[in-house]
């Protein structure tokens, strides 16, 4: 029940962050928003650790692994994704980031020694095919110009960085590092690294958007999207493994479209409804345990086939 509660919380929180990110676009450079988000989130977590008097002394080696997790999850993954958003639709971004489940399957096997379960691989393939159908109206009109191709490459680089950060988080938890303090320092390192990039990179100015919507979105993204969202997700990752936990990345774009239905009048075409059904089937396969009589090569090849069909 704890795992189910964590999973539902992650899907709902991260499914709602998409609309918050939209309120941050227009005035402030995206890199500035990312830096402010994680510096604020780090301050919140540090304060909470202080209130609870949690131990905050760690070795230099432990700080190195915290910094590596922070760079992967709270810096390097976000900057390329925001760059990619200049040329890609939200659908292409969603499909690209959903590929994190494929990266987690393979990186978990290579670096953590996790076995690739046919059931999980099949569920991932079905889920990716489903998310491609959900966003098919956007995907079918894509013209693979140089900029779009670059955008897809950047989105995949950001997704790979996120997956790498998840692997390091899994390693850190196995090494006994607590999730709360590790996230606090990781977000601090990620936020500082992004702030240094903003300061040193040409053409990026520290600016502030005076709209109430921007400030509210920043607080929501810092508290819910970062402190709670990553806290729940990385705890779940430590409990059920990167491959299963990462299926949330397939579900939360669907939740985002559900919110868009209410707030922005999004209408579900039949192909999106069919895609939603596939996403749910994949979810059942990934999160439940049992035997599936499927040769491993087919389960591994299937995500690539689904990916080729949808192509953030």
TrEMBL record:
Alphabetized SUPFAM superfamilies for the sequence: Multidrug resistance efflux transporter EmrE (SSF103481)
Q: Which InterPro entries match?
A: AA-Vitamin_Transporters, EamA_dom, EmrE-like
What Pfam families does the record tag this protein with? EamA
Q: How does it sit in the membrane?
A: Multi-pass membrane protein
Give me the Gene Ontology terms describing cellular component. Answer: membrane
Q: Where in the numbering of this chain does the EamA domain appear?
A: 7-135, 150-287
Residue ranges annotated as transmembrane are 5-21, 33-51, 63-85, 91-113, 120-136, 148-168, 188-208, 214-233, 245-263, 269-287
Keywords, A to Z, come to: Membrane, Transmembrane, Transmembrane helix
Compartments annotated for it: namely:
Membrane
Q: What is its main location?
A: membrane
Q: Which family does it belong to?
A: Belongs to the EamA transporter family.
**Protein name (database record):** Permease of the drug/metabolite transporter (DMT) superfamily
State the organism of origin: Caenispirillum bisanense
Which taxonomic lineage does the organism of this UniProt entry have?
Answer: Bacteria, Pseudomonadati, Pseudomonadota, Alphaproteobacteria, Rhodospirillales
